[in-house]
Amino acid sequence: xxxxxxxxxxxxxxxxxxxxxxxxxxxxxxxxxxxxxxxxxxxxxxxxxxxxxxxxxxxxxxxxxxxxxxxxxxxxxxxxxxxxxxxxxxxxxxxxxxxxxxxxxxxxxxxxxxxxxxxxxxxxxxxxxxxxxxxxxxxxxxxxxxxxxxxxxxxx
Length: 156
Known about the structure:
The chain has about 160 residues and is of the alpha/beta class. Helices cover about 35% and strands about 20% of the residues.
């Protein structure tokens, strides 16, 4: 297993074991089992309450979750706010239908080398990163979705 793949799997294992997990109204998740991700296509989306593009990305992430969750898509929103209350206020205004985790220590963000907000990583069924996106542009939604469909092996 190459170093990058190992680092990604280790980072996801930290999330899955509940180290960064917390319950949110959107989906009452207190911990995740890493085995749940085996063979799944995973979008790991790093966000913060102060991030303006994140406000545009959440409705789109919700629609992707609803459209493809039964085909094996898992979306994990990883919050990087210092104060949980700021994230909670954001989630009140922009509810998430997908899993949310809190990375106050920034350990997971460091593992993924997050360089912008939002930063999204698309992992194929084999756990390899197949796409990276920094920022969120509404005009590129079709491109983002096409990458998800390709990873899911779904033809349009």
